[in-house]
């Protein structure tokens, strides 16, 4: 137990091998899959342990009050159960070679990749400054509260600051309130010249991005990882309420299922122009493209585009080889012309 709602799960090799069959870079995540109620559900979880540990990986998972997979893991997983997992994947990584200091800004369960990075750098006696800035609601929500002081004792270059947004009625003596521009620039000298990583709840990430923009720091200076937004409950084929207006967008053909349909242009308020993603259309048709994050990070929804052209706002999960071979992310892909995909 890390907090009343967050637990760390330690995964060991399923074979008799002592060591894991893979290595990873600090900051990467695993895509785990569970069969729940007859449906396969994929979710991504950042590895919170250090890559120096070759015998296990730790995933630190918050139980979401109405979450399908996190509650399944918390309620039903037993020691010794087998887990199906893909990866490790992800580009939200830092090994110490990329810069000579780092600012790790996290909130809530977004602390997990930062923990892996800090553990790794500490074990390597990396000489750079690590500014570890964490925000949570109350002392009870402080994930790794007992493990961070241990790292601090080992690493004098690890500068930890924790701020709590709702510490009233507790004995918290540290910083209070949300992260502000003045507080951040005081805490991190020469903020603009340092490599910064950010992961946390959407509101926290938006406000830190706004601070960086206000300070005139270019947006590509700040590496971010989004853990995904509240997801629409996927439609089940045949039960979806039919849209009132006919679809008028480009035609998408799902060649393996021999199904085609036009994209709806009016699905999302605020899209410019409003257009349905290939994943959303596939859910209406019951195609069964797998997904996890729905924000372009995990790569579970990769599919081959055999003809046509799409826009993809986020392409984090695609590598150069994917792009060269017309692999697209169905959750991000919005058709610009008629499209065919191998799904
Ligand atoms: C790269 C990456 C790394 C990640 N790393 C971590 C990590 O280290 N630790 C971690 O805990 N998570 C992590 N996540 C998030 C994780 O993948 C899951 O999204 C999270 O566990 C929620 O999954 P779930 O199935 O429990 O919730 P889902 O069923 O997917 O629900 C998502 C949200 O919607 C809410 N919800 C569901 N149904 C309803 C409903 N009917 N009405 C209202 N609200 C509803 C849930 O409470 C939840 O907040 C990561 C995500 C990504 C993309
Ligand atoms: S579902 Fe994760 S990249 Fe599309």
TrEMBL record:
Named cofactor requirement(s): FAD
Ranges of residues in domain 2Fe-2S ferredoxin-type: 250-343
Gene Ontology molecular-function annotations: 2 iron, 2 sulfur cluster binding; metal ion binding; oxidoreductase activity
Domain (FAD-binding FR-type): residue spans on this chain: 1-95
Annotated keywords: 2Fe-2S, FAD, Flavoprotein, Iron, Iron-sulfur, Metal-binding, Oxidoreductase, Plasmid
InterPro entries the UniProt entry points to: 2Fe-2S_ferredoxin-like_sf, 2Fe-2S_ferredoxin-type, 2Fe2S_fd_BS, Beta-grasp_dom_sf, Cbr1-like_FAD-bd_dom, FAD-bd_FR_type, Flavoprot_Pyr_Nucl_cyt_Rdtase, FNR_nucleotide-bd
Pfam families: FAD_binding_6, Fer2, NAD_binding_1
Family: In the N-terminal section; belongs to the FAD-binding oxidoreductase type 6 family.
Name of the featured protein: FAD-binding oxidoreductase
Source species of the chain: Tunturiibacter gelidiferens
């Amino acid at each position: 137990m890390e907090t009343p709602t967050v637990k760390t799960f330690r995964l060991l090799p399923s074979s008799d091998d002592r060591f894991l069959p893979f290595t990873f870079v600090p900051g990467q995540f695993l895509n785990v899959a569970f069969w729940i109620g007859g449906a396969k559900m994929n979710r991504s979880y950042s590895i919170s342990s250090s890559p120096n540990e070759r015998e296990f990986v730790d995933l630190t998972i918050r139980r979401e009050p109405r979450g399908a997979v996190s509650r399944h893991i918390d309620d039903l997983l037993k020691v010794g159960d087998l887990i199906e997992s893909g990866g490790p994947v992800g580009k939200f990584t830092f090994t110490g070679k990329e810069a000579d200091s780092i600012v790790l800004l996290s909130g809530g369960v977004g602390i997990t990749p930062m923990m892996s990075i800090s553990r790794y750098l500490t074990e390597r006696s990396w000489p750079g400054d690590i500014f570890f800035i964490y925000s949570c609601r109350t002392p009870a929500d402080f994930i790794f509260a007992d493990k961070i002081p241990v790292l601090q004792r080992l690493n004098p270059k690890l500068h930890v600051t924790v701020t709590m947004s709702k510490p009233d009625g507790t004995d918290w003596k540290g910083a209070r309130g949300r992260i502000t521009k003045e507080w951040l620039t005081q805490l991190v000298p020469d903020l603009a010249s340092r490599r910064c990583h950010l992961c946390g709840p959407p509101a926290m990430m938006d406000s830190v991005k706004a601070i960086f923009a206000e300070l005139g720091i270019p947006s590509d200076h700040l590496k971010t990882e989004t853990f995904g937004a509240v997801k629409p409950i996927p439609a089940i084929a045949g039960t979806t309420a039919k849209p009132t207006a006919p679809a008028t967008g480009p035609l998408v053909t799902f060649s393996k299922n021999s199904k085609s349909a036009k994209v709806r242009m009016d699905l999302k308020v605020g899209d410019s122009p409003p257009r349905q993603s290939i994943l959303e259309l596939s859910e209406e048709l019951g195609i069964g493209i797998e997904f996890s994050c729905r924000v372009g990070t995990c790569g579970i929804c990769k599919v081959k585009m055999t003809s046509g052209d799409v826009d993809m706002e986020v392409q984090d999960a695609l590598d150069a080889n994917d792009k060269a071979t017309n692999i697209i992310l169905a959750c991000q892909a919005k058709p610009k012309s008629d499209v065919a995909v191998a799904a």
